[in-house]
Structures are given as structure tokens and as C-alpha cells.
Amino acid sequence: MKIVVQPLTAPAFAPFGDVIDAIGAYDKLINQGLCERHHDLAKLDFGVESGGRAGVSVFKAQALSLPYELELMERHPDGTQCFMPMTEHPFLVVVAPDIGATPGQPIAFLTAPGQGINFHCGTWHGVLTPLHAPGLFAVIDRIGPTANLEEHWFETPYTIIPD
After folding, report:
1. Bigger pLDDT: 23 or 155?
2. Which CATH number do you get for residue 131?
3. Would you say the pTM of this structure is higher than 0.90?
């Protein structure tokens, strides 16, 4: 089962989360007119009602390559998860709709340099998949006392291939 990677766009990714980038019109100029502010680009949720709070972490993931074998997807039911690359390298983002509490047909996106993403609560997604070293990301997600991770292993892996 093969999945062809497509470019990451806000409309295509909207059912799964937010695209975070500085493409398009900005809201206002700040810092003495030297800085464009692209305002409120992601809807973050940290499950405050269940004791969650915002946390900022740094992930350093091993770089992988295409074709890529997708064996596992995960989701976080109690909080969003935002990935901001700390380099200009693109990375692979894999998501799937929820079909009866399991992931449906996966969709693979390739970010443009400088794009980050925010997964909505409960969105099935692949693991962090940088395609270039050092695979360094700032991650903003829920820190809390309750479990916020569900995993699904596929009986037959998908192969993700470049377009």
C-alpha cells in the first residue's frame, strides 16, 4: 500500500490541524516596523480541565528518508501538539482521519522550509519524521497528570513515496 507525498497546504491540512508559517499577509508590523506579526496561527488546547498545562520541549529526532515505512500512528486525545522546526529543512507529516477509533487512510505531506504544524486534539499522526539532520524541533504540547497517548500499529505497513 503506497502513499504519495503532497505539499503541505493549510486547506488540505485543515481537518487535522493548523499550518504555521509566515506565508501570506501579516496582521501588523511591530518592533519599529521591522517585524511582520503573523498572529494567532494555531488553536492550542492543553486540557486545562483535566490538569493539563502548556509545556515547551525540544525534540532531536533521527533523520529518515523516503521511501518510508509507516508502521505506527498515534494521537493525543487531551491536547494539541505543535511542532516548530528549528532549522530550514522540510519534514514529513503523516495524518489520518479517525474511523471507529482507529486511523483511516493515511495522508502524507511535505512541509516547505519554515513551516510548522499543530495537530488538533485526537488527530491520528505519524511519528516525528525529519528528512534531514539534525531533526531539531521546538514542541509545544500538553503536560499533565493523565495519559495523553494512544498508539495504533498497522498489520501491513504503508510505504510513503516521494511525488
Report:
1. 155
2. 2.60.120.480
3. yes
